[in-house]
Amino acid sequence: MTIELKVRRVGNSLGVVLPKEVLAHLKVEEGDTMTLTEAQDGVRLTASNPEFAKSMAVFESLNRRYRNALRELAK
Prior knowledge:
Layout: E1 7-10, E2 13-16, H1 20-26, E3 34-39, E4 42-47, H2 50-65, H3 67-73
Antiparallel strand pairs: 1-2, 3-4
């Protein structure tokens, strides 16, 4: 699915409006939380998942603690 979105002013910020089809595909409604993550080819927008958020918090904690070891293992 490829959809072009226009960036618009929303108060003092900028934002995009997601069409109904995209919201239905993501299974989100007004008031839901979404997650924007960086990917190699750009960014990824997903419906927020509490379990994923918990896993990411653990990863970020371990990533800071073992940064040097992980960098060496990645070689």
